[in-house]
Amino acid sequence: MNAIRRFLRLLWIEIQRSPAALVSVLGLVLAWLIRDNPPRGVVIWNDISQSVADGHLVIAPLGAAIAVWSVGRSRRRGVSEQEVALPLPAGSSELIITLAVMFWMVSAYASFFVLLAIPGWRFATWGSPNLPMILIGALATCACVAIGSIISRFGRSVILSPVTLIATYGAMVYVSDSLWYSDTARLVPIKFLSDNGFNFDVRQPADDFLWFCAWMATLTVTLIFLQLLLRSRSLLRVAAIVLSIGLASTSATQVVAGPRFPTQPTDIPVNPVCEMASQFEVCVHPAMESLLDEVIAEVNEIAPNFAGLTGLPTTLYQTELVDPFASGIARFHVWDKTTIGYVIPETFTSFTSASSSLDDGTSLSASQCAVGMALTETAGDFPHCVYGVVYESANQSFPPGNELGQRGPDQAARDEAAREISDKAKSFAALTPEVRQAWLDENWDALRAGELELDDLP
Amino acid sequence: MNMGTFLPNRTHRSTASRSGLTLYGIGHRFGRHQALEDITLDLGTGVFGLLGPNGAGKTTLLKILATVQRPGEGDLRLIGLDPANGHDVRLIRRQLGYLPQAFGYYPNFTVFEFVEYFALLKEMDPDKIRPAVAEAIHRVGLEDRARSRLKSLSGGMIRRVGIAQAIVNSPALLVMDEPTTGLDPEQRVRFRNLIRDIGTRSTVIVSTHLVEDVSAACDRLAVMDRGSFRFTGTPNELVALGASDTGAEEPGESAMERGYRLALGGFKS
């Protein structure tokens, strides 16, 4: 009991005097300044949760840096010799300093959550705080502090702190960017969050999150045990670190071996908000109800160009809830107000294919793309032709659904194919409505079946 | 003038059974340099002074007594316990006060926090810590600066904070390496009174360059040079040694200083 009271009192002194207090304020301000704030016009808890979790990208490296500074304090200040003559091992005071830094950095993270949650509680139209996601950011912050704490063992130079800051941040960004396709990269919080981030209609399997939480927690504990062990060895400490390494390895293995993208996401049941537009029923997620009028306006502007054409879906459905292979339904993904103007035209562009879903990797052919662009042209603006058709028309091998990646054909071939399609789309759009309609009446089915080449277009 | 400085301990504590140290044949090397050689010593309660020139081995010996350093050879018992034993060393350190030559501190801590911090790390009874800290700060005369940050204190005050953290646990063994460095004459006098008081119940070992500190505060002393004792005895015996050879008197030199010089074999420190 006395040991606990002493521990708590030491922790309180450290918390009061820790330089991490100031750094946590800095972290909070930086996280606030660079937060992701999508202009969707609707507030959704999942986006808020994602922004909160992303805050660890700033706060955690700062925590690592200040941990290096704080834990290295006794050596820098020449107190090491006094501490050696104390009954408590020096590792104990280092542990307390580490915990004080964790307290401040997690407080900064929690404050960031509260700041972002205030508009959530007032305006959120859907969901609730995604606590597992937010928890991961907090655990990542603790892990980075533990990393900084152990790094302090390897030097006393004052530049070790800024180097740690840059290295920790750089490592996370490097892994998330350069090692994106590596399963091992899933051990980094930002990558894991990206892979497993919720959207508003799909909930990912919870056990994956639990394994990642276990990985972060056991990593932190292992590093702390390692620090204690480096200071003084005992059988108990060796046993503790062996156990924690075992647990960390197990949870890390589970995270790495887990599905990169969940194979069995759990739908969140909703009652969509639907309204009839010209010849199409338009349904949006209830969280996006405020966007429904604008979506319908966009549909009404384009839909007349498709009047009389056969095989079109009857319902445009915003969310992923609907069976992607259900006939008569086309899905679209509007993220915010600014995306309506290109998402809806692109959705209509896909109607030039008879494929039930373009999300299964099917690409539009060059001719389908050109006609689709022409039919969805509004006020002289042609939508982008999606799904990689420009590469196919350049006779290049290209992974479906990866048209924007780095492994595609050279840029010149892509530009040339896109130019040809664009030119053809403009030519088709320039036809008189009667000529265009006559051509569509005659060739629509063949076009949708993918039997026409670009040169077959008028 | 702050008359509270270095006042005798207000509380009476019986510590007769938990003081004393025994050294037998202690030696220590740093590479090829023999820092200590065949140091043998048996001390009970009281104040023991270590005199000697720079590099004599005083600090090395004090580090060994403070369990900071293990001796290369020899046998050592502190407060009746073996510091080579992991369990014993923790018990020793709970009853140890140590002020190193280069005293480090955390500038953002207040005086009270810093002394309390060390009291906590010395595993004192939590119920006794706050009064003990207040007492230690009172005894070094810093009670009016107890809430001041250490970075706002002078060098002498910092040294007094160091003394406070060393005595906060009423140590059975108090090891101080040049504790009077930076203290003004008044504070030095009060410091001598303090360690004399502590020495009535504990074993106090003080290293210093200043023979007047030794003559005023110590019951026994040793003169060290090149890693070994050249003289051990009482201050009066050192004075007597100096008085026995008046022919070698230097201008302005006291009998104790002359005794010190003679103990070093005529070398003038």
Keywords:
heterodimer; A: 458 residues; mainly alpha; two-stranded parallel sheet; 18 helices; 8 strands; elongated; B: 269 residues; alpha/beta; three-stranded antiparallel β-sheet; 9 strands; 22% strand; disordered N terminus
Structure description:
The complex is a heterodimer of chains A (about 450) and B (about 270). Chain A is elongated. Helices cover about 60% and strands about 5% of the residues of chain A. Chain A has 18 helices and eight strands. In chain A, strand 5 (about 275) and strand 6 form a beta hairpin. Chain A is mainly α and about 450 residues long. The model of chain A is unreliable at about 385-410 (pLDDT under 50). Chain A has helices at about 1-15, 20-35, 45-55, 55-70, 75, 80-85, 90-125, 130-150, 160-180, 190-195, 205-230, 235-255, 290-300, 335-350, 365-375, 390-395, 410-430, 435-450, and strands at about 45, 125, 200-205, 265, 275, 280-285, 315, 330. In chain A, the strands form three sheets. Chain A has a four-stranded mixed β-sheet, with helices on one face. A two-stranded parallel sheet of chain A has the order 1-2. A two-stranded antiparallel sheet of chain A has the order 3-4. With about 270 residues, chain B is an alpha/beta fold. Chain B is built from nine helices and nine strands. In chain B, strands 5-6-7-3-8-9 form a six-stranded mixed β-sheet, sandwiched between helices. Chain B has a three-stranded antiparallel β-sheet with strand order 2-1-4, with helices on one face. In chain B, helix 3 (about 110-120) packs across helix 4, helix 4 (about 125-140) packs antiparallel against helix 5 and helix 8 (about 235-245) packs across helix 9. The two termini of chain B are about 35 Å apart. Residues about 1-15 of chain B have low confidence and may be disordered. Chains A and B meet through helix 1 and helix 6 of A and helix 2 and helix 3 of B.
Distance, first to last CA of chain A: 89 Å
Percent range of helical residues of chain A: 55-70%
Low-confidence stretches of chain B: 1-17
Structural class, from secondary structure content of chain A?
Answer: mainly alpha
State the oligomer. Answer: heterodimer
